[in-house]
């Protein structure tokens, strides 16, 4: 596996396609040359190459883990009725998608549905809810995590669009706590720092039936793993998820910080970090490198 990761990194290291996310100003400042890949198997073996221990903002990938927490709390039927499960066909931060579907966010991996999902996390105070969010991410990563304060402040100053979406959902009855407080917690959640190595461990929990293969601790009920992976298959790479599924054939999730996760259930998780993104918001090098590794190892779920 190590040589496969190293070859994928070497093949695409000089691919300068895409651009860092710039709508969050601090993300535009990150070096575009950073490129790391990690793999974690269901028995906890870890392989990594390149910048796999450089921290980056988890961003949208955090949505998968808050979804896992909330499904465990309320069950997948309740999640379907309160959030939904279907692709929007629109960009990740679309207001139109909400308006087109009578105010329902449609799925938990676009910003609207992800913020509504965070609004379902129980807690009397913002600190209670935050402690749940960060403890949940830490259980998946297997160690303590912290917020990138610069990215958090940069995103807080520019997240008016997300605040608008949260209030719109509230007006339609699809937001389950105070919009301003939840958007702030969601923004902090997106600013949590992880590495490609962490992300591969976090994804391996899903590949391993909900048990972290490194710590041995259960982080999500086994019956709730398939719905989470199904969401990733439908909306994990925003409005280009279909293309990803067509080529890679495994559940994936990207973030505008440059992270990308791919899960091969029962086998291993792959994660990459490379900041330049395509127009849909997915890491350019990450998609190419993970696709290459997935193809080389025959991990596509639809192969017989
Ligand atoms: N925090 C980002 C936002 O809400 C996450 C988006 C992403 O990574 O796709 O816009």
Largest sheet: 5 strands, antiparallel
CATH superfamily of the largest domain: DD-peptidase/beta-lactamase superfamily
Molecular shape: globular
Give helix % range: 40-55%
For the secondary structure, the number of strands is 7
Q: How many domains make up the 3D coordinates?
A: 2
Topology record:
Blueprint: H1 2-12, H2 25-28, E1 36-41, E2 46-50, E3 56-57, H3 62-74, H4 76-82, H5 96-100, H6 111-118, H7 126-141, H8 149-157, H9 160-172, H10 179-190, E4 193-194, H11 196-207, H12 225-235, H13 241-247, E5 252-254, E6 259-264, E7 268-273, H14 284-296
Antiparallel strand pairs: 1-2, 1-7, 3-4, 5-6, 6-7
Glutamic acid binds at residues 59-60, 92-93, 111, 155, 162, 190, 255-256, 281.
Name the descriptors:
alpha+beta; 10% strand; 304 residues; 14 helices; 2 domains; globular; Beta-lactamase; binds glutamic acid; two-stranded antiparallel ribbon
Give an account of the 3D structure.
- The protein has 304 residues and is α+β, with helices and mostly antiparallel strands.
- The protein has two domains: 2-57 and 194-296, DD-peptidase/beta-lactamase superfamily (Beta-lactamase, 3-Layer(aba) Sandwich); 60-190, Beta-lactamase.
- 46% of the residues lie in helices and 10% in strands.
- A hairpin with a 3-residue loop joins β6 (259-264) and β7 (268-273).
- α3 (62-74) crosses α7 (126-141).
- 55% of the residues are buried.
- The mean pLDDT is 95.
- It binds glutamic acid.
What is shown here, in short?
The protein has 304 residues and is of the alpha+beta class. It has 14 helices and seven strands.
């Amino acid at each position: 596996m190590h040589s496969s990761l190293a070859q994928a990194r070497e093949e695409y290291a000089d691919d300068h396609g895409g651009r860092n996310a710039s709508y969050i100003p601090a993300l535009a400042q990150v070096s575009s040359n950073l490129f790391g890949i990690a793999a974690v198997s269901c028995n906890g073996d870890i392989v990594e190459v390149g910048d796999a221990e450089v921290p980056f903002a988890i961003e949208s990938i955090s949505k998968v883990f808050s979804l896992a927490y909330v499904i465990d709390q309320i069950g997948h039927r309740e999640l379907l009725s309160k959030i939904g499960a279907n692709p929007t066909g629109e960009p990740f931060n679309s207001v139109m998608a909400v308006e087109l579907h009578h105010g329902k966010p449609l799925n938990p991996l676009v910003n609207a549905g992800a913020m509504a999902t965070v609004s379902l996390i129980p807690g009397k105070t913002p600190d209670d809810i935050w402690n749940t969010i960060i403890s949940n991410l830490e259980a998946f990563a297997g160690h303590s995590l912290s917020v990138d304060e610069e990215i958090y402040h940069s995103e807080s100053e520019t997240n008016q669009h997300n605040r608008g979406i949260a209030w719109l959902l509230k007006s339609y009855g699809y937001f389950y706590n105070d919009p301003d407080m939840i958007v702030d917690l969601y923004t902090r959640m997106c600013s949590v720092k992880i590495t490609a190595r962490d992300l591969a461990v976090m994804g391996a929990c899903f590949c391993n039936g909900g048990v972290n293969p490194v710590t041995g601790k259960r982080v999500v009920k086994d019956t709730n793993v398939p719905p989470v992976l199904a969401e990733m298959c439908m909306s994990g790479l925003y409005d280009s998820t279909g293309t990803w599924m067509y080529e890679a054939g495994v559940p994936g999730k990207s973030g505008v910080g440059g992270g990308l996760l791919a899960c091969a259930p029962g086998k291993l998780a792959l994660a990459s970090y490379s900041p330049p993104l395509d127009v849909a918001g997915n890491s350019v090098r990450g998609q190419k490198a993970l696709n290459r590794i997935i193809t080389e190892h025959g991990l596509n779920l639809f192969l017989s």
